[in-house]
Fold this sequence. Notes:
Low-confidence stretches: none
Oligomer: single chain
Strand content: under 5%
Order of helices and strands: HHHH
Radius of gyration: 28 Å
Amino acid sequence: MGTIVLSGAVVLVVLGFGNPLYWLAAVALLLLYVRHGREPAAPPPTGPASAPTTYQAYRARRDQQAKWERRYRRERPIKTRRQERGRSR
């Protein structure tokens, strides 16, 4: 992507010798590329969706999830039955 933007800017600068408006277009293109075009490196995942680093962390997360699911089924039995009925079809 950067190669296309840079070559486009060079073409606009070359064309700008006849019309200075092309120089402004080249500057605007480079400015937009610098501000919005480059994608930042993805930060490492953090939070509950990240993969556990140890087996103990995995077990703790799995047990917590099972606890939440049991609580959900206990507190919302009608929704749970409806969901299970939909899965069996």
